[in-house]
Automatic annotation (TrEMBL), chain A:
Lineage: Eukaryota, Viridiplantae, Streptophyta, Embryophyta, Tracheophyta
Family matches, as PANTHER family: TRANSCRIPTION FACTOR IBH1-LIKE 1
One Gene Ontology term from the biological process aspect of the record: regulation of DNA-templated transcription
Record's signal peptide: none
Protein's UniProt name: IBH1-like N-terminal domain-containing protein
Domain IBH1-like N-terminal: residue ranges: 5-67
Organism the protein comes from: Rubroshorea leprosula
Entry keywords, A to Z: Transcription, Transcription regulation
Automatic annotation (TrEMBL), chain B:
Keyword tags: Nucleus, Transcription, Transcription regulation
Domain BHLH: from-to ranges: 200-250
Species for this entry: Rubroshorea leprosula
Full protein name: BHLH domain-containing protein
Region called Disordered, residue ranges: 1-20, 130-191
Bias kind Basic residues: ranges: 159-176
Compartment(s) of residence: Nucleus
Amino acid sequence: MRSPSSLKQEFLKKWMMGLHIYGSLKKKMSLLERKKAIKLSADIAMASARNGTTCWSRALVANASKDEQDKILVQHILGTESERLMKKVSVLPLMSNKRIRSKKVLRRSYGSIRRAKKSNIAASPPNKVLAISIAKRLVRKRTLLLKSLVPGGEFMDEIALIEETLDYILSLRAQVDVMRSLANASELNNKN
Amino acid sequence: MERIDGTGARSVQKTPEEEATALESIQFTDEIHRLISAPSDNASSFTALLEMPPTQAVELLHSPESANLISNDTFKPPHMEDFKGRLHFPTNIALVERAARFSVFAGEGSNNTNIEKNSVETALNDSSANLKKAVKSEPAETESSQPLVSDPTVETKSAKRKEREKKAKGSAKKSKTAANESSDDAEKLPYVHVRARRGQATDSHSLAERARREKINARMKLLQELVPGCSKISGTALVLDEIINHVQSLQRQVEFLSMRLAAVNPRIDFSFDSILTAEGASLMDSNFPSIVTPLMWPEAQVSGNRQPYQQQWHFDTLQQQVWGREEVCHNYITPENSLLSYDSSANSATLHPNQLKMEL
């Protein structure tokens, strides 16, 4: 498995590269602009550390490249892989959308058939059925929420969603670690 | 089934009901032997074929690879005894197919290849015919794979792979075909075996659902281990709750940290030289946080205000180790404070905002 420290190092490198590019582009930036720049380069660096292997990284890159301004930064950080990634990125959400939609249609049809069958069979104690349905509703709600959190989550089915969440959490942790240590270091530095 | 040691022993012990399952497991070894013993496949009975000694097959195939196969094959049956619950049939089939491939492409003569092809096809036909009584859904699949058999012998897709073998409580056994029967290596077999437990529905829908649910549960377990504090919780909804909270807190931390970083520098260039000289440590080191915190401690002593910094330091180490929701509220405090003053008290989370304001 990818080691966390190598992930951090790669992230740091790419992040610094992005920041330098930003710094060269604009001379004076307000606080908010700076914050946005930092966050953006951090996110792109994180995504590029995964190199297009995961869905969330591709979705992140896709969202970033929608804005023309940020697109330049994205291309700089990604470097040579940018063209390849862009192709993957543009194709994927459309295809998966169709796939998900057709799957949903199928699943709904299965459900209706099964429900018709069940209505004929004598129902188990209604409490159980109620509890089960409530639990399912809760889980569904939370899955939707998780899908909104993980970038590109709306296009994934449950199994892929969980895998992506796993990877996303790991990368987020590495990102937070590096950012925090950098922040601490620079603040200490400023005091001196 | 007498001939094969491992499976034979198993079938003898089990009830006739479960002999159906044993039969299916025998099918593979059976097919191996049938593939080996080429011409005499016209016999319809199992036992006649199974009694075919492997040594005869060597002469039939006229190739050294088959000798390897046989020697490996005689290895396999005793091993199968050990694999009581898990049988790695793909290796058998892989060997068969590899041997077949070699003998086909080794160019030992066209008659050889023809024999191979015919033997494979007849083997499949026989197997499908024989197993019709034993397992109902099997022949449907093998027959559906008949058209594929006309392709080179490599693609004998009668081989199925047992993905998960539960304990044999099941009375019935079905196999589930994947959507696409791809013609690649034997390792990537399209069929997935899911054994139905006792008293559970065995139609393909519920089986598919069960396989899917198991996949989801396995991955949820991984997630539970990753997110701290989730392993004790039971129930999908609550676990998902925790996971969502964790992801949200991580994302918020990124926001606040980027705000902090933006506030620290008037221009976004983090020159490492100055940082490194200050720290005397490399940022590349993943132990960086632990290095930072001891350095903060002498800082604290200089400023003379011990107590809040003590708590601060203690809390910072906690922060590194414990990924909890407590971090979120501290990050609420930090950016604000760092904006007000570049005091070191803003560096990491403090327990009480009041204390902090007193210092300021």
